[in-house]
Description:
The protein is of the alpha/beta class. Helices cover 34% and strands 10% of the residues. The chain has helices at residues 2-14, 31-44, 63-92, 101-109, 111-131, 138-154, 181-186, 203-213, 228-231, 307-316, 371-381, 396-399, and strands at residues 158-162, 193-194, 219-222, 239-241, 248-251, 258-261, 276-280, 287-290, 319-323, 348-352, 365-367, 427-428. The strands form three sheets. It has a six-stranded parallel beta sheet with strand order 4-3-1-9-10-11, sandwiched between helices. The chain has a four-stranded antiparallel beta sheet with strand order 6-5-8-7, with no helix packed on it.
Amino acid sequence: MELCGLKRQWEGLDSGREGPLCGGSAPWRGAALGASLSAAHSRCLKGPDGAAAPSPAMAGVSQREVRKAADRRQKRAAEEQRARIKLVSTILQKPEELRTKDDLTLLSACVDTVQELEKRKQKTEARKRKLEEVIDEPEELKRKINLLAAAIQAAQYLVIYSGAGISTAASIPDYRGPNGVWTLLQSGRTVSTGDLSEAEPTLTHMGITKLYKEKLVQHVVSQNCDGLHLRSSLPRKALSELHGNMYIEVCTYCSPNREYIRLFDVTERTSLHRHNTGRKCHKCGNELRDTIVHFGEKGTLEQPLNWKGAAEAAKKADVIICLGSSLKVLKKYACLWCMSRVPHKRPKLYIVNLQWTPKDDVATLKIHAKCDDVMQLLLEELCLEIPHYDRSKDPIFSLATQLRPGEEDSHSRKLLTKDSPGSVGSTVSGGWYGKGCAKGRRKKKV
Length: 446
């Protein structure tokens, strides 16, 4: 019944149109009508003696009416196109053995439309495959870990690029995973997470710090804003937080910029292109701002972004390991990939991610596994012990600047404490989660 209705709708649109409906293919219906209309139209363009008839403007028709008529024709063509696509799509969804003679005739008449729908289907399936999470079999994973360990031991200058995937074990969502920030926003759902004061450095964070202390890793370039690299005791000089740190606010009026590390999320009042936190600089009295770089913004702060350190590390690197990053943003930073070098002189690339990344084709090795699982096996292979995170020794407590009298009510976020929280607290929406991410949402067509 639905298919019959679509056919009637299409035939109704086609009844007053000249020529074939399917753009270069043979017409399904209305060929005789189209020919007669074309002949009538041709006669109208000539006078009684065969001379050309005057133009619409010369015949007293205004240019405005001509434009309106052209708009109507354009809208009608768009309606016909939508009706045709919907009808052909409905037929293609039917099993081949159930397609009628009329269905086959229509498909043969609309070859261009069929090809376009097939291309759309292939693109949709390709996008779905890229979002699928793949896990290597245990034996395959062990083989890859051995190769990665050998690469780390042979590296002269190793740099790690970390993404949101290394923090999921701390109950902080990633961006493009099944329950990631972008995935939730694009499906119309809200983004929330456990109280960020409860988050602690994961096994991967502590493993990276151990590799640095053993001089196997020289620099870490992070896209994360959660501050967990800093809290894992990784030195500031070895860290570039390209998208900011939720615990740091700065005064850009002081030279050099004055930095304030806090024991709470400073992004509560900030969002895309709105970075003032509501607190004042202790020295000059000007308003402080957060350090977060939202999607669509360009990071200009020297610290904690440390772009200079990241670029210098990339120039020296002979091995790059990407942990838990989709690389869809990081790939745009050409200076991090030594693209000016010839391909065989660029750093060897090792990727750890459950999903497809745009750098897979140029990677020396791709490991499909969770970051914590890889780090555990990797340090075992290197005969190193991963240190346990001790909250009472978290360096953020010695680096933090205390609030001044009168500033206690400048935020409502829970403070970090040296005592272990024990359980996850109430749900909050971080200032750097949903805010700014809405830019990437696609509006549904009405």
